[in-house]
Amino acid sequence: MRFINERPFSGGPLAEAAAQLGVTEQELQTALGDPELGPPDLMAVAEQLGVSVEALEAALGTMLDLERP
What is the per-residue pLDDT for 61? Predict the structure, then answer.
């Protein structure tokens, strides 16, 4: 799985994902970290936010490239 190395953060898709997860946009952005440092550890992000990995993947949708190399 690859994380799309763009910053869709701040408004738009990130705000929608945060709302779906029941967290603030800032909490989600902080948990995801800097995309330039590589893909986030989805298990760690989900644990930090108190959501399932499946819910996190569903909420992030197009921000994740779920095709495996």
Answer: 86
